[in-house]
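dumping this here so i dont lose it
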């Protein structure tokens, strides 16, 4: 299955968006693996579940308030995502919206 991409635009500067992203990931119970404040890149993973072995999430924050998220399986051998990639992205953006 292919990765899920989605983008949205917020009326915030990168520093505030990065803080909101950290809070949203925590609310989603995703684990932050790395944060690069200079490039606006955050990498996180989801928890192990019956539906998957965990997914990688890559989040990029643009200088003008855009947020792009990519969710994909951590293991290349997983054949189907059972809708998990889309749920990860939807849940993340929902929590990010609540952080505004």
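and the seq i came up w/
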């Amino acid at each position: 299955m292919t990765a899920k991409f989605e983008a949205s635009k917020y009326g915030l500067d990168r520093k505030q968006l990065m803080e909101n992203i950290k809070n949203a990931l925590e609310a989603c119970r995703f684990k932050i693996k790395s944060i690069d404040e200079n490039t606006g890149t955050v990498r996180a993973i989801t928890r192990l579940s019956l539906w998957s072995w965990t997914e990688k999430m890559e989040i990029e924050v643009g200088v003008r308030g855009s947020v792009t998220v990519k969710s994909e399986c951590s293991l290349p051998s997983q054949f189907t995502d059972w809708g998990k990639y889309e749920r990860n992205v939807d849940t993340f953006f929902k929590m990010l919206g609540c952080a505004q």
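The helical segments are 14-28, 84-98.
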